[in-house]
UniProtKB/TrEMBL annotation:
Domain of life per record: Bacteria
Descriptive protein name: Aspartyl protease
SUPFAM superfamilies reported in the protein's UniProt record: Acid proteases (SSF50630)
Organism: Sediminibacterium goheungense
Amino acid sequence: MSVIKLPLLFVGSKGERRLYSLFDSGANLSCIHPAYIDQIANKEKLPTPRYIATASEGQRIEVTHRVIVDFWIEDVVVSDEFLLVPGLTEEAVIGAATMQKWRIKLDFEHDTVHVDPKVMKMQLI
């Protein structure tokens, strides 16, 4: 199984920070480790907690906060919601919903990530 992990610049209302981000098509939603978000943006409490299943049978993690931030891929700014997941083993995870929404393509042969150029046109309208 191939993995693509790249340093991406995340920008929010409080500042910016480069986070090593795992592109995971097996993860539905995008996530950030809570330890990094205080420097980037204000977190928002979820109206109802969400529970994420783990690889361990019967184990799940309660998620109570989210954040909306921008991040940069190939000079294209992308914006999305990220869940703050306690104990996340990565600094950030870009999930399938974000990749589909922004037409992000993974090139495992060259360990690169590409954004459809039409996305930039959609932002300018």
